[in-house]
Every structure is written in structure tokens, then in C-alpha cells.
Amino acid sequence: MSQGDSGTSESRTVGTTSQTISRRGYLAGAGAVGAAALAGCAGGEDDDTLTVGFALPYTGTYAMLGESITNGFELYIDEHDGEVNGREVEFVERDTEADTNRGVDVTRELLVEYQADAIVGPVSSAVAMAMIDTVQSEANSIWFNANAGDYRVTQDGCTPYHFRTSFNDWQTSAPLAEFVYDEVADNVCLAYADYAFGVNSKDFFAEEFEDLGGEVVDEVGAPLGTDDYSSYLGQIEDSGAEAVFSFFAGDDAVNYVNQFSDFGLDEEMTQTGSGFLLSGDTLPAQGDSALGMYSLLHYADTLDTDRNQTFYDAYADAYGEGPNVYACQGYDSAQAFAAAVEETGSSDADDLIPALEGLQIDSPRGPLAFNSETHDPVHNLYVREVVEGDDGPENEVIETFEDIEGPTWGCSL
Amino acid sequence: MQWFTDFFDRSHALETGSEILSSRGRLAVAIAVVLLAVVAPVINVFEPFWLNILVRMLIFALLALSLDFIFGYAGLLSFGHAAMFGAGGYAAALLMREYTQNLFVVLPASIVVGVIVAAIIGWLSVRAKGIYFAMLTLAFAQMFYVIAFTDLPATILDVDEVTGADDGLVGVAGFELFGEPIHQLAGLDHRLLYFYMTLALVVVSLAAIVRLANSPFGRVLQAIRENEERVEFIGYNVTRYKVIAFSISGGFAGLAGGLYVPFQSVAHPGLLHWEISGELIVMLLLGGLGTLWGPMLGAGLVVLVEDLLGGVASWEIILGGIFIVVVIFAPRGLAGILISIRNDPSQALTNARKTLRNYIEKVKG
Amino acid sequence: MLEVFIRSTFLGLQLGMTFALIAAGLTLIFGMMDVINFAHGALYMLGAYFGTVIAGTFGNYWLALLLAPLFVGLIGAAIEIFSLRPLYGRNPLYHILLTFGFAIAIQGAIVLIFGGQSRRIDVPTVLEGTIQVGPVTYPVYWLFVLIVSTVLIALIWIGIERSNLGILMRASAHDTEMVNALGIDVNKVFTGVFVFGAILAGIAGVLLGGSRSVHPGMGMGIIIEAFVIVVIGGLGSFRGAVYAALLVGLVTAYGSVIAPTLTELFLFAMMAIVLIIKPSGLFGATEAA
User: Fold this and answer.
1) Which spans are transmembrane here (chain C) (predicted)?
2) What span, in angstroms and rounded, lies between the C-alpha atoms of A107 and C60?
3) Is residue C286 part of a domain?
4) Which domain holds residue C119?
5) I need a labelling partner for B196 at 20 to 30 A (CA). Which of A43, A365, A393, B313 fits?
6) pTM for the complete prediction?
7) Domain containing C133 — which CATH number?
8) Closest partner CB to C7 (pick from A59, A234, A287)
9) Which chains touch C (3 or more CB pairs under 8 A)?
10) A275-313, pLDDT tens digit by residue?
């Protein structure tokens, strides 16, 4: 399935690596309610194929993230001739629109209608929280959480089917405290998007930072979807802190970072934050405003390893642009799935779970394994600085924290 | 089948020709219901996911029905019906997570909460007319949305969570009776059970609203829609009638919320957002305002189309396009089209041509 | 703290004036044609997107500021002539559905063409950097937006109050048949007003596209805010819309300092109270335009 770099693609419904089912065929198969057509389109019933269901946003703000995760997953399968353990892999892509109720509908559809062997997604943590029950009650498939990082998916959900191939919000915030304290400043102002994920992130950072002896001088929460940060930036400036730790993502990150430098704050204080503040989906719109800012993430496309270079080239070859962290998360979901299926020769969740727990994955991000208590990832975290690259600003890795695990939040599988 | 149509019939002592749902219409509804009930187990075996879609179609049909009663029938355009829908849903979620999953406690509670919220909004709003009423209900519904989204109650009560803020409340499990999941009591698959339960409640609601519409109370509402001043002049308390009608409508919207949230296992602020209210109005107009059955059809259709087009990148363009075409060329909605075809099939083509000619003339000015 | 206050005042005024550009069209269109234009936010978004394309292609911000609103005006004309015009005289409700349809469809079209990613309009070098205003540092571009939108609003104000066109507009809203009888084509006046409103929304899109991210959800995001303004100011009143826009802008700006999460709630409460106590709006007398 060829994929342009625009947010949405033409034939984005059902694709297999070897053939693409036309949209009309799909609609007829999935949709003709009442006409009791008994077309056996449920892939899982057929023992020869493996069905992977994507529950991801393909429209709306997060469309690009959904595309990237899908591209990453499909790239790995394509690299292996569209097969895993000799079985053809079939993809079903369904749009969650990053909406909680759509997320539940889509998850159900993938599990019930398509009998997916594995489900990949979602992007938004609110959707992930809502999916937990459905995954547990509807079927018995592996859930590769390829982006939703809220720790409560582990704390409240704690389901054996859930494997996080992405990160959790502790990992992308707390470890940065050490770097900021040692290298940047011993006092910070926290600025965050005032919703669950933003609050979690700044709390995790603050806790760690204060443990190290640092001081949080002020904190400023802006409602999700704020367009103008002028007043908040005024308060940040007023705090007199030498550095800022932020959690913002998507459009909020673009607005915040751009206005941070529009108002000249970049000359007074050092901006740091979770990696989503400055990632592949925001950097092009942030441009030079982002230069000199530090962030923490489990991936950087500039990572200087052979593994990442191979991945980068293959991805760029296939899709005409370099990979981002989301693509890496999709790719690793495919790696984990393929390795477990190959090891066990089965696609049954009960067989796959122990196999996945013992897996060591050679990821473009570095070594990746799953914590057997929580199924959260164990991987490296990278401190990155935005520097001028050949094609505009890019993230350069300046420090690595190895094999970061984080708390288990009472989950003990 | 006779009992079924009788039930709708019995109430209207007033034999005017304008009653909602003719006996032929009632028969059609009865046949549709029986057909659905018979086909459901078959669907569950071969395409179980379709039952999920059907349940969602039914719940939104109920919601559309509740709005059509107040809007199509009584003439009050509520642009905030999401408030009652969401309130009923949150009530169900809170009860089921904290206290009881008993079906006979949760659903009535959802209805009551819907009625209360509607009574408050209605009492404050019904004096405003037309578009001002719409804007007021919109403002109130958005207030509810913001309150749920920021979890203001938790801040005020100083507890961890009440509405669960932007994540909403998850893990709202299924209904129970006597401490047992009801599908186990009934010996049915949970999906099938939920479908039957929803179908039954939607049918009962439709019957209740039809009876209400054809009752003397309903006649007064209709009269208010046609000429408010005159009804006032005759000596009716128009404001009270409107508030009561709005509250009744809110009860059914609350019920829809109470059915939807446990089915989805999650209550989140999106339920209260104006886009739900807006979409509802779209369902009504698409189906045919004031006919009760039309909006239900419209709701089912919108849910279905959204689901089918969900994976198509340009689904918003298609959906928006459908709205535009319907408004311009079929202002009486699906119901209008069906009625005119039934009344005079031979004229259908001529009518279509006339509509087109009319359109071109108007564009020319 | 003084700095924060001054900065918020600037932001409030700037928001107020740009909101006024958007609300002006909305309220004029309602005042004259009884149309609640749900697609108005989409027109604002189109202005911003056309702006990114023109500024990106020619590397010239000024060209974008000039041309993008005109393209939005063209689209507005098409919407008015081919879909609204055949519907005049029908229940205004149908206009809600119709324009709601356009809002959804336009947003879908933008996603299809540009994808969901954020973009930004590059501002010219003269407008980059910051300027010292009293004790606060303020971006030059934000000040530019404030000045341009204030001048525009002032010009429109004078135009509506003084010119023949303004009188004609007000007359058409007041008594369509009378104006028709005078031999003036009301249809043309309606189209003109709709296009005018669309152009203003387009200008606001380009102006704000230089300071905020441009994304497909921005239209739906601003439409409810614009309704709040139009209602508080009095449906159909231009003057009311300008006052209300300033009020909402300042409340938003100060609110973000005092109680960010409660600001939105406060605005809706304000809207509800105005509707209950004085449905004609806080500033709307009985004037039509």
C-alpha cells in the first residue's frame, strides 16, 4: 500500500500486503446490514492468514500519528514479504477519529467482526482507557498499545493482553529531571496542558526534580486547545525561573513553542519538556522557534546506530520521508508480534503472552523488552536538543539513559 | 399484531385526522420490530458486529425521538439535547461504578436525572422564543460540557474524580439483576440481550410518546406550536406546558444516555458536546421533522452512514454533502420522500423535475 | 504582576478585534437574512489555509493577506448563490443544517488536501522580533494584528454608519419589500453582505494564521466563541458585536491569568444570562445593522 506524506490517503480502508481489497468490496462485506450476506470476511477464521487490526485516528488532529504508526507496522511486514511464520498478514485499518466512543466501536469491530489476532493502537490515552474493557470482554487478542502513554492504562487496566510498544508518561518526563538539575538549572517553572496526561507528566517530573534537590518555583496550566499563550507566558516569565519544563502536544505544542520564542522568552530561560513538545509532527510547524530546546523521548530519527540507519533508509525509501517516533512504535509492534508468532507458531493470545514477556527486540530505538509485571516497555530514553540540520531543525541526541523501567503502579501480572 | 396497534390507538379519544402515525404506519412499525427481533439471533451468529451497530442505531433513534417530540411536535428547537443525554449517561456511569448495577435502579435514575436537568434548563429557557431558545439551550449544554470536561464537581467537593475530566469514566460494566449479570439470567449472549432490551425500551418509548402526542396534552402542545398567543389567550399556561413537555423529552434523552454509556462501557464529556446536539438536529431534518418515525429512521441512517464511511478518508465531505443536498432538494426529509412516493408513485419523477426547475429559478434570482 | 496585566490587556484587545472581524460577518448575515451561518468558522479556516499556500508559494505575506480573503469571498459567493438563495423564506432552521453541512464538508476537504498537521503562515521579516511597550516585551506581529484589525473595524463602523451602502444594508434588513419596490435587487445585496462577511473572516484567518497554528479543527473551534459574542452583542447588531467581541476578548485574556479552566464556563454563563434577561443583547438596541 503506497503512502503519500499527506495526512490521508486514497485507499485507506482495508489493505493486505499482497492485494488491496477495493473500498466497494469492503463496504459490501462490512456494511450491508439486513441483507444477511454471509461473506466470510473475518480473517481470523481462516487459519492461514494473520489479521492485524489498526484502531488509530486517520482523520482529525492526530491523523499523521495514525498514518505513521500504520506505515511503520506495514514496513516491517513488507520487509518480510508480507508474511509472518509463513502466514500471510492481512491489515484492517479503522479510524478512531481520536474519539472515545468511536474508539470503542472500532475496537469492537476489529475484535468481533474481523477476529483480529492483534490490535494496534490507539493514539489518544482517553481512547485507550475506554478500550480496556472491550479488549478484555470481547475477545482474546494481543493489544499492542502503540502510543497511548497514560500510566493508568497499566494501573487501572493491568490486563495481560496489553503490551505497550510505545512508552508511559513517567518514562518521558521523570528521567529528564536529572539532566535538567545537573546541566541546566536547579529551579524550574512547570507549564503544561491542563488535562490528565499533562498533569501526570509535570507531576512525575516535579517529584523527581524535587527529590534531587531542585526547586519548582511556579506552575502554569493552560486548558487543552489554548490558541494564545500570551498570558501564560507572562506568568512563566514572572516566575523568574531559569528553566521551564513543559508538557504540550500537537497543536498546543506548536502554539506554545512558537509563541515562547515570539515573546522572546527563549532568550531568558531554557525550555525543556517531554519529547512530544518537539517531535516529528510538530517540528515542521515550529521551525526555528524550537532551536536550542531540550526534550526527552525514547527515540530520535537522528539516532546514530546501524539499526536506526537501516530503518531510516527503508522507511524513507517506502514513504518518501523519514520516520518519526510514531513510525518506530508501529514498527516495533510488528517486530514484537512477528517474533512472538514465530517463536510459538501460534496466534492464540494465551500462547503469545509468555513469548512476548520474554522477548528482546532489536529496535531502531535501541534494545526493547517488556516488563513482565506490567507489560510496559523497558528501553532507553534520550535527551535531545533541537539543532539546525540539513533540512531544517532536527533533534540531536546529547545524553542517553539506558534501560529505563519506571514504577509498576501496583500492576502485577 | 392487533394488540400492538391497539395500544397506540387506545388513547386518542380525540378522533381528529391529524394524529401521529396512522394505523398503517403502526402496522409498519410493528412489522419492522418483529422482523428485527426474529432476525437478530441469525445476525448474532453470522455477523455479530452488526448487532452493535443496530444497538447504536436504536439508541440514537430514541434520542432523536425525544428531540422530535419537543421540537417537531411542540415547536421548541433545543440545541442542547446533548445535556440530557450526557447527564443520563453520567448518572448511569456513577451509579454503576459506585453503588449498584441493578438495571431497575440505573435506568430509572438516568430518566429522572434527564427530567431534572431538562426541567431546570427548560424552566430557565422556555420564555425565550425561536432562535433565542435554541441559543439558550446551547449555552446551558456547553456549560455542562465544560463542567464535565474540567471535572469542576471534583474541585468543589475536593475529591479525586467525579466526572473523570477529559478521560471520562471508564469501566462501566454491564447491567445486573439480583447480583447476576442479566444476560446470564436470561440465558442469552450479552450482545443479543442488550439488543432485545434496547429494542423493547425503544418500542415502549415510541408507544408512550405517540400516546402522549395524541392525548389532549399533546393537542395543546401542537396548538402552541401553531399559534402560541392564541393558546395563551384561551387560558392555558403556555410556559408550564412547555416546561413539562421539555422535561418529558429530557427523560427520554436521559434514558438514551443510560442505555448508551453501559453499552460503550464509558461516559466521557464528548456526550455533552454541542456537536452531538447539532448532529441530532441533522438526524431530525434528514428523517422528516415532526413525524416521530422519520427522525428515528434518520438517526439510524446517520449512525449507519458514519460507521460505513468511518474508514473512508473523505467521509466528512460525503456526510456534509448529503446534508446540503437534502436541505435543498428534500426539505421534508426521508419521511417526506416516502410519503409522497406512497401517496402518488407516478408523480415522483414529475415532482423531482419540478423541484429541480424551482431550484434553478431561485438561484437565478 | 503589572507586566502580566498589561500583556493580558494587549491580548484581550487583539483577541477582541480579531473576534470582531469574525463576528461582524456572522451578525450582519443574521441581521439581514436570518441565517445562522455555521460555516462561518470554516470560512475563517479557509482564509488561514489559503494564506499558508499563497505565503508559502510566493514567499510573500502581503500577497497572502490581500488574495486569500478574496478567494474566501469567492467561495462565500458560491455558497450564497447556489445554496442559501434558494432557501430564503423557508424556516431559518434549514440554514443551520445547510451551513452545518458546509462546515463539515469544508473541514473534510481541507483534511483531504492538506492532511491533519499543523501549519503556520510565515510572517515577513519586518514584523518579526519583539518590541518594548512600556515594561513589557511584545511581539511586533501581535501588535500588527491588533492595529490592522482595529483599523478595519473602525472603517467598517464608519462605512455602515455613514455610507449609502450601509443605509441600504440596514434598510434591506428592515424591510425587504420596500427596498425591492425601490428597484434595488435584494438578492444582490444579500450576496454582497455574505461575501463581505466571508472576506472579513478570511482576513481574520490570515492575521491569526501568523501567530497561531493553522489546523483543520480551527473553524469548529472558533464558531461557538463567535456565537457567544454575537448573542451577547445582540443578534444582528454590528455595533453590539464589536463591543461584545472586546468584552469576550478581555474576559478570555484576564481569565487565563485568574482561572483558566473556568473562563469558558463563565463565557457560556454570560451568554445564558444575557439571553434570559435581555435577549436583544447587552449592546443591541433595536438597530438592525
Assistant:
1) 12-31, 38-55, 61-82, 94-114, 140-160, 189-208, 214-235, 265-285
2) 46
3) no
4) 1-277
5) A43
6) 0.88
7) 1.10.3470
8) A234
9) A, B
10) 999 998 899 899 999 999 999 999 999 999 999 999 999
